[in-house]
TrEMBL record:
Positions of the 3-hydroxyacyl-CoA dehydrogenase C-terminal domain: 495-591
Protein's pathway: Lipid metabolism; fatty acid beta-oxidation
GO annotation (BP), single: fatty acid beta-oxidation
Superkingdom, natural source: Bacteria
Keywords: Fatty acid metabolism, Isomerase, Lipid degradation, Lipid metabolism, Lyase, Multifunctional enzyme, NAD, Oxidoreductase
EC number: 4.2.1.17
Record NCBIfam families: FadB, PRK11730.1
Organism: Solimonas fluminis
Family classification: In the N-terminal section; belongs to the enoyl-CoA hydratase/isomerase family. In the central section; belongs to the 3-hydroxyacyl-CoA dehydrogenase family.
InterPro entries, per the entry: 3-OHacyl-CoA_DH_CS, 3-OHacyl-CoA_DH_NAD-bd, 3HC_DH_C, 6-PGluconate_DH-like_C_sf, ClpP/crotonase-like_dom_sf, Enoyl-CoA_hyd/isom_CS, Enoyl-CoA_hydra/iso, FA_oxidation_alpha_subunit
SUPFAM superfamilies to which the protein is assigned, alphabetical: 6-phosphogluconate dehydrogenase C-terminal domain-like (SSF48179), ClpP/crotonase (SSF52096), NAD(P)-binding Rossmann-fold domains (SSF51735)
Alphabetized Pfam families for the sequence: 3HCDH, 3HCDH_N, ECH_1
Protein name per its UniProtKB record: enoyl-CoA hydratase
GO function terms (MF aspect): 3-hydroxybutyryl-CoA epimerase activity; delta(3)-delta(2)-enoyl-CoA isomerase activity; enoyl-CoA hydratase activity; long-chain (3S)-3-hydroxyacyl-CoA dehydrogenase (NAD+) activity; NAD+ binding
């Protein structure tokens, strides 16, 4: 009946038709502009056919439809609000045409049906899902909300309260949970899916199910009286505003759109959805979060390419069995790579196994059965000797952050492993080229910087030295990926990528405290900016002693702008007073433990006195803009330096390193994306205002050139 590039319509026996999504030359189905156009054409063919009694909608892929084609959003959202609203209204006519076909319709959800894919399913009268499927509307994670009728059809189908939870949360939903709220009408085993859908369709044709009543439910107004409406929407808005905050406007905008459209018919409601969607599509949050999704795809693509030249890692080892070693061992074993954990003391091995045991125990009953938990722990082999190191493919050295000790351990382990074994040092600051002098095969040596806590932090920096081979880099990236981590490849330099960029931010903070800044106000402003914690709190979490040590390394590496000898800082005075942060219960804040054993931050009156003792000006309040600029400009400029020097290959990897490694506000997209949002000319003007503060605020030549040419790091 119809054949396109992504859709075909065929006649089946008994007067039935099948609309099948089967995107040519692709492993998945997604909604791009061409597919929406084809759906419109297919719908028109079906509407004109006079001999069709019912329709099933299927997919020829392992998934149903993964969602919209996000690569099209960049150019599409450059249009005006009015044009975007018009596009959504026109697109929705296509889905409404399917919904208005003069016979019953059933969607067969055989796999993932997310975003536009699930909205497609909502436009049919019934949905039958495989027990292995997944449905949902994840647009909120992109700073958006559904624009193909999701805010209209879903509330009318499952109730406004359930729909708000689905749309605002953006989480995928398992079939049984979807069945419980009537988002799907049946859940069956994969092999019975088609037969069950055809049976349901035949029963609807026979009048056993009132498909016209179901359709009327979705195309009419929401059935809520005034009191119910007020209760549902106002409660939801209060809760979501508190949870999402001002920086993520999409969830609240979705609730407002559902509320505004509640008393309207479908077509009127869809116009309201379109106008609200257009407004949200133009926000900087949507721009940044869509960019993050695409950035993540690039990291995955690079990891896949690395996997093609990597040597297989069937057995790993970690040297050093403390909290870090135990965390690395757990991460490796839990993702399927067995690991030997070696140390020189039983006490250390006990600590490492205790850490792994604790992490496994937390998952039992949630994600792990006791049997799987046992298998993970059995895949970690603690040892005091090198007995089985001949079987190892990669060794992660995670001993104390001391170059002398690390070199000794690296030389020793190299003599115990087979030729070609990759040796990776988990270091946060020591030069990879310096450490490489301890090994005979530097081509097999590199850095593998895990962030603490290992099981939570998604980033691993893979740092290559002058002699590291491409195979060693690829193998380490592949191993990090197998561990469930995002690996970013970084050229060796003091501080590598993340710490090198973070410490100029700390430099801006130190100078602000020196000039009379209030540490509590600064923390509050930067948390309002979107950081998970302000700089003083972050120093306590990192560890004042650790930060002080890394600061020394960076001061030596970049004396022109990161020297710590110009003035005695608040960090120095905390370090001298052995206030090391959370690790010993006192830093810029003091810490008490809650009943669950988690540290709770408290204000300590002595902190202000200690900061005042090294301040060069009396305490005063700075404007929010001044605080943000004095901390963020050095970070942006240092990120650009890393890019200019080839420390990191792309703006994407630089920004993802900051988001995954130190919690840079995702809705701002990273330091370079944030620079694009502000505009390079504005960045240069702001930097000029703070030129008197030194080289941290001195923009690079590439930044000046970019401003002159009107270019950005992430072209639209």
């Amino acid at each position: 009946m119809y054949q396109g590039q992504s859709i075909r319509v065929s006649k089946l026996d008994g007067g039935l038709a099948e609309l099948c999504f089967d995107r040519q030359n692709d492993a998945i189905n997604k909604f791009d502009a061409a597919t929406v156009k084809e759906l419109g054409e297919a719908g028109a063919v079906l509407a004109k056919a006079g001999d069709i009694k019912g329709l099933i909608v299927t997919s020829a892929k392992d998934v149903f439809i993964v969602g919209a084609d996000i690569t099209e959003f960049g150019s599409k959202f450059q249009a005006s609000e009015e044009e975007i609203a018009g596009w959504t209204v026109e697109s929705n006519k296509v889905f409404s045409a399917i919904e208005d076909l003069p016979f019953p319709t059933v969607t067969v959800i055989n796999g993932v049906a997310l975003g536009g894919g699930f909205e497609m399913a909502l436009s049919t009268d019934y949905r039958v899902a495989s027990a292995t499927a997944q449905v949902g509307l994840p647009e909120a994670k992109l700073g958006l909300f559904p624009g193909f009728g999701g805010t209209v059809r879903l509330p009318r189908l499952i109730g406004a309260d359930n729909a708000i939870e689905w749309i605002a949360g953006g989480e995928p939903v398992k079939p049984d949970a979807a069945l419980k709220v009537h988002a799907v009408d049946a859940v069956v085993a994969p092999e019975k899916l088609r037969a069950a859908a055809l049976k349901l369709l035949e029963q609807a044709i026979a009048g056993k199910y009132d498909w016209k009543a179901r359709r009327a439910q979705k195309t009419g107004p929401l059935k809520l009286d005034m009191m119910e409406s007020m209760m549902v929407f106002e409660t939801a808005k209060g809760f979501i505003a508190g949870k999402a905050g001002k920086n993520y406007p999409a969830p609240l905008a979705a609730v407002t759109a559902i509320q505004k459209a509640a008393g309207k018919s479908r077509d009127e409601a869809l116009k309201i959805e379109g106008q609200a969607f257009a407004k949200i599509a133009k926000t900087t949050a949507a721009d940044a979060l869509i960019g993050l999704f695409l950035n993540d795809q690039l990291l995955k693509k690079k990891a896949k390419a690395a996997g093609k030249i990597a040597k297989p890692v069937k057995q790993a080892a970690v040297l050093g069995a403390g909290i870090m070693g135990g965390g690395i061992a757990y991460q490796s074993a839990s993702k399927g790579t067995p690991i030997i954990m070696k140390d020189i003391a039983d006490k250390a091995l006990d600590l490492g196994m205790s850490e792994a045991n604790k992490l496994v125990s937390k998952q039992v009953g949630k994600k792990l059965t006791p049997e799987k938990a046992g298998k993970i722990l059995a895949a970690i082999r603690p040892t005091l000797n090198y007995g089985d190191f001949q079987t190892v493919d990669i060794v992660v050295e995670a001993v104390v952050e001391n170059p002398k000790i690390k070199k000794s351990v690296l030389a020793e382990v190299e003599s115990q492993v087979k030729p070609g074994t990759i040796i990776a040092s988990n270091t946060s600051s020591i030069s990879i080229d310096e450490l490489a002098t301890a090994v005979k095969a530097p081509e097999n040596f590199l850095g593998m910087h895990f962030f603490n806590p290992v099981h939570r932090m998604p980033l691993v920096e893979v740092i290559y030295g002058e002699k590291t081979s491409k195979e060693a880099i690829a193998t380490t990236v592949a191993y990090a990926t197998a561990m469930g981590k995002n690996a970013i490849v970084v050229k060796n330099c003091p501080g590598f990528l993340v710490n090198r960029i973070l410490f100029p931010y700390f430099g801006g903070w130190s100078a602000l405290l020196r000039d009379g800044g209030d540490y509590l106000q600064i923390d509050k402003v930067m948390e309002g900016f979107g950081w998970p914690m302000g700089p003083s709190y972050l120093q306590d979490v990192v560890g004042i002693d650790t930060s002080h040590h890394v600061g020394d390394v960076l001061a030596e590496g970049y004396p022109d702008r990161m020297s710590n000898k110009e003035f005695k800082s608040a960090l120095d005075v905390m370090y001298e007073n052995k206030r090391f942060g959370q690790k010993n219960g006192i830093g810029f804040f003091k810490y008490e433990t809650d009943p669950k054993g988690k540290p709770v931050k408290k204000i300590d009156p002595e902190t202000e006195q200690l900061i005042a003792s090294v301040a060069k000006a009396p305490k005063k309040e700075f404007t929010e803009a001044e605080i943000i600029d004095r901390l963020m400009l050095p970070m942006i400029i240092e990120t650009v330096r890393c890019l200019d020097e080839g420390i990191v290959e792309t703006p994407t990897e630089a920004d993802m390193g900051l988001i995954l490694g130190i919690g840079f506000p995702p809705f701002r997209g990273g330091a370079l994306k944030y620079a694009d949002t502000i505009g390079m000319k504005t960045i240069l003007e702001k930097a000029a205002q703070y030129a008197h503060l030194g080289k941290l605020y001195e923009p690079t030549e590439s930044m000046k050139k970019m401003a002159a040419e009107g270019k950005t790091y992430f072209p639209k």
